Amino acid sequence: MLERSVNYEILSPTNFLDRSVKVYPDKTAVIYGDKSFTWTGFQERVFRLANGLKALGVGPGDKVAFICPNTPPMLEAHYSVPLLGAALVSINIRLSANEMSYIINHSDAKVVVADNEFGNMLSSVVPELTAVKAFINICDIDDSMPLDGPEYERFLADSPTDPVALVIEDEREVLALNYTSGTTGRPKGVMYHHRGAYLNALGELLEFKINPDSKYLWTLPMFHCNGWCFTWGITAMGATHVCLRKVDPVEIYRIIAEVGVTHLCAAPTILIGMSVFAKENNVRLSNSLEIMTAGAPPAPMVIQNMENIGANITQTYGLTEVFGPHSVCQWQDKWDDLSPMARAGIKARQGVAYIVAEHMDVVDPETMEPVPRDGTTMGEIVMRGNNVMLGYYKDAEASTEAFRGGWFHSGDLAVMHPDNYVQIMDRKKDIIISGGENISTVEIENVLYTHPDVMEVAVISVPDEKWGEVPKAFIVPRAGTNPDPAQIIAYCKEKMARFKAPKSIEFGPLPKTATGKLQKFKLREKEWEGHDRMVN
């Protein structure tokens, strides 16, 4: 470790707050409903929370778990906990009590802070949380206090505003633990470090063009990759955080209009909901709105639908293991005159590495040699750089496997275009091998999204006696439509190679994670029950 000197300082995203307080002390930092805080007021709350946690015995190396939607306490935790040298464990609010219990215990959390909407559920597993020393209730929806501990605002009021200095000695100390979705077993704790979070937060500012006048709406869960590091990035620029408890198109468009929101992030499934609502209610944006989307490869039609109402879409790509976004579909002027659908097709690519990330390639996972830049040959996306995790908490074997060959292995299959832009074709586990031919489920989904009766879709492999496996599409129809499966299959055969078209269609809701990712493994489990095929 380098010693601090005239030409070296520890990089930590907690440093951004102090700068914004000095530059913009009276500027609005946070808006939540009818509440707002200046940067000075927000820092005072951060110091109160940090001092209160410190009084509970929280210090370097400890873990503090937060179960909270996108409200001010969740944002405050991103500064208070790391200042103490502790690690923030932001837990997915849509998990079951047992899943939350596993994460709290596995992370060795010393303190648990829970919004009372979720505290009631958590109270059923409190006896299992033997390592937890204290609970704190956030009473946002009502005055109930389901956990044995103080109320959050009272806890802050009883704590001093004395400044709290960052206590870490190494910028690669653990800043946060983010748990994966656990679709292939128990979730793994991804260890973020201060240096990576600092650099990725700056990367978000560069790629998303945040400025001090920006107003960022929190439609992206802060528990997901620490809000893709925007929890720190918005602060770094002295812009305004606009908190949102529940993602709902009516509320999103109301706040956009009333507050003057300029930026938001959302998974494609959120964009689908927003575009459907906009179409049904004739919504047009009166001001410029920048939207960053990631979490799943977006269909070009979804991008075009949002841009039709006046938004500008930027697609990024990453994983929990790389602090959220690692690459961006960097737009170039030479594409300006393309047709709307052609523009959307380019914007659906995963693009090139962030300026602060630098290293991303598509390789043969066996030889680790780069695939030809022909837009056709598939390989695995691999990444390395300052924004790669330290590893999985208490799981050295999984960490070694993820880092084999000196790169982080994403598990995503992609092609590299001649212009060095990456485009995902599928997850390794989602690719369909039918009669020896590789079929991309993403390619089929993109075609289906152009059908006027299709709102959402997921394509998986299902067993077939002749071909081994074939595509099947699960579709959520648009409201007011009654699509015919045979007609939709025929539509696909007109738009792509006939052997790639789904052989069957099923209508109904799709299983998703809290961050909007389709849980295809649940669909596969049902379809492959009793058959010899990996379902995860």
UniProtKB/TrEMBL annotation:
Q: Which organism is it from?
A: Desulfobacter postgatei 2ac9
According to the entry, what is the taxonomic lineage of the organism?
A: Bacteria, Pseudomonadati, Thermodesulfobacteriota, Desulfobacteria, Desulfobacterales
At the top level of its lineage, which domain of life is listed? Bacteria
Q: Read off the NCBIfam families from this record.
A: PRK08162.1
Span of domain AMP-dependent synthetase/ligase: 18-393
Entry's SUPFAM superfamilies?
Acetyl-CoA synthetase-like
Would the keyword Lipid metabolism turn up in this protein's UniProt record? yes
Q: Name one GO biological process term.
A: fatty acid metabolic process
Q: Show the GO MF annotations.
A: ligase activity
InterPro entries cross-referenced by the UniProt entry: AMP-bd_C (IPR025110), AMP-bd_C_sf (IPR045851), AMP-binding_CS (IPR020845), AMP-dep_synth/lig_dom (IPR000873), ANL_N_sf (IPR042099)
Keywords carried by this UniProt record: Fatty acid metabolism, Ligase, Lipid metabolism
Q: Which family does it belong to?
A: Belongs to the ATP-dependent AMP-binding enzyme family.
| Residues in AMP-binding enzyme C-terminal domain copies | 443-517
**The protein's name:** Acyl-CoA synthetase (AMP-forming)/AMP-acid ligase II
